[in-house]
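Subject: Interface between my chains keeps coming out wrong

I've been trying for a while to get a sensible model of this assembly. When I model each chain on its own everything looks fine, but I need the whole thing in one frame so I can look at the contacts. Pasting all components below, labels as-is. Any help appreciated, I'm running out of ideas.
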Amino acid sequence: MRFHRAVRPVEVVPALAALLAGVLALGSALGPGFVLRYDMVFVPGPPLTWPEGGFPRAVPSDQVVALLAHVVPAAVLQKAILLGIFLLAGTGAAALISRERLEPIPRDGLRPGHGSEPSNAPAAPTGSAGEDLQTSGQAADTALLVARVAAAVFYVWNAYLAQRLLLGQWALLLGYAGLPWAVRAAMLGGWRRLIPALLPAAAGGFQAMLVTALTVLPVAAVAARGQPRVLVRSLATLAVLSLPWAVPALLSDAVTDPRGVEAFAARADGPFGTAGSLLALGGIWNAEADVPGQSAWWLATARLVVGVFAVIAFARLRETVPYRAGLLVAATAGLVIALTGAYVPGVLKELITWWPGFGPLRDGQLYIAPLALVQAVGFGVLSRRTAAPVSPTTVSPSRRLLGGGQGREEGPGAAGRGFGARVLVVVRAVGLVVSRRVVSPSVVLPSRRRLGGGRGRGEPGAAGRGVGVLLPGVVAVCLPVLVLPSFAWGAVGRLAAVRYPADWQRVRAIVNGDPRPGALLSLPWSAQRAFVWNGGRVVLDPATKGFARRVVWNDGLAVGLENGRLLRIAGEDPLGRRVGAALDAESSLRAALRGVGIRYVLIAGENENTFRSRLDGAVLVYQGGELVLLRL
Amino acid sequence: MLRVLAALLVGVVLAIGASVSVVNVVAPSPEPPNKPLYNYGNR
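Reply #2:
Try treating it as a single job with all components included. I did that and got this:
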């Protein structure tokens, strides 16, 4: 029995590349302190609480963080989670690309050579043919390595991940990171694969699980042809792992404002409209979450071109690639959801009015995560071609133009596959004019292996082959970074670690040390803050995460629209609504707040007098430069 | 050789574009706002 196996570059290098990309992307966010931006709020020593009122958006992610923070300091944990997202996502995307996966594999997941090898598999090479096979095999390994690294880099360095990170949605990104692993598990089947693969999404909560379900179910449905048990297993796992947020969501009396569709629908973040933005994996509703400089026309064009070609490359994978059809269905469905909110918002509004459970669909752009995975794998395949050694195999230009050939990815009927194939034919024609001999490695290598073919016209020697493989490979791997360069270093400072002022710790110690019941009201009456000590970055009120008791805050949202109008979306928490009404009223605030169970009032910022003057009789418990704490 | 040159060309062009973009972005930023209230976002 072997307990150790050799570490292979095709496994290690993508992980290193993903990690390096993570370090480069996070940059100053990896310094001491906490990264606080929009929905990303971490506090030191977070208490383990169960949310009351409103939709359980941070369940179970907050509880997972609170538990883990007993073992690891919360600041370190946050960095580990953020870097872990990059590592998990990159290695997962790479894992979907293997020589076996791009070739037909049996449904039980056995690799070729384990009793299921195709009958036309290459025979053991001998003599000079064998040497040539070895050479081409090494080149193929290099090409495969390039493909895996390229897929990894693409999947962790794109507008989707960047924008969601800048919106602070790390919990969603847990699901995004686990998505390729979930696809792999759904494809191969088995509880032992499925449960661990879905755990990141389960920890992330509702958004992560919805995106995962959208992806996993079509993949499992295709993989389960003739075996309903496979699909049922995926459904059951998704359902069970969704219980932590689904049960409180169903039990809560939260309401969803249909006008949120108008605020959270996908939007154009570049010169190609909403659809073009989505195809380039951008289009998030919030302009503040755009990567700085991303809308420059040359970068937007490059991202769109890369994205479209990657999709075409993925769609042209052989139909027997087990996850191909399912992932395409998921990507299409996600795109349709995003486009629906943008172009026919009335449909979503009607659905949400009919049942608030459709509320999560209003932020449609988040459902293009499977499209990101499609593009990552497609980009890897393209890079594999780019980095493959030049072929001596002669496929006549006319035949290539017609989509003919003998490769795995281009069957005899490729020319008739529709618009995508025709586009590729045109692009190939351009490629032929430029290079005269660009052939997919997947066309060439198998035949070379079988035949042990010699060097052909114009084939470079070993040194030339090295440069010819490596340089295009390096360019391909770097391309995702080059088309979104300002994602680097925390999107040029948009993400950075800061320390909480001492006031926060002192106030938390007072409130969390008080055994008497009663909620804490956080003022000013708004969900978002922009503290100077946080560099003016907008963040969800940290008070919502820092206290071991019910915190009442304004979970209504204000979103500025394109026409300059401010759209106010009603809050979901009924208690929050009652408190909001009391704040608006002219009557005594103290009596009204005590009447709804408020014990503490925390006031942040410089306009505390606005509220203190209305809280006569309240006891001043703490006053610092940042915070004022009153007890009713 | 043509492929290497093409890769070089693409790499150089994209690197120049990326550099221009980063230089544009890393311009001096105004003082951060000192507002206790803020929108969730702007479209």
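Reply #3:
Confirming on my end. The mean pLDDT of chain B is 79.
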